[in-house]
Amino acid sequence: MNGNVIFDTNIVIYLSKKLLAPEKVFAENIIYSISIISKMELLGYKFKDRLEEKYISKLIGSLNVIPLNDAIVNMTIALRKTNKIKLPDAIIYATAQVMNGKLLTNNIADF
Length: 111
What we know:
Elements: E1 3-7, H1 9-16, H2 22-25, E2 30-35, H3 36-43, H4 50-62, E3 64-66, H5 70-82, H6 87-98, E4 102-104
Parallel strand pairs: 1-2, 1-4, 2-3
């Protein structure tokens, strides 16, 4: 299987809390990425457990972090004009669309 998968913030959280097994998520020949927004959300969290913080930092380091660019910004604006969606979620979804990736999320209601 080939492709590009964009993780929503909640997927990284589930992996860190062991609510989602890595072997259920990761496969060969897939490019795994997160939006810069997810990185900010994840690392901006006040962790109670230093091990979880280290795990998340290491996981983020293994992923392709996609910065904002004009295409993502324009897609985000278009999404927000036509859908009631929070700005961070719109950016994450726009990132997946611009990167021709599949968005992996547990937050179906917002997307």
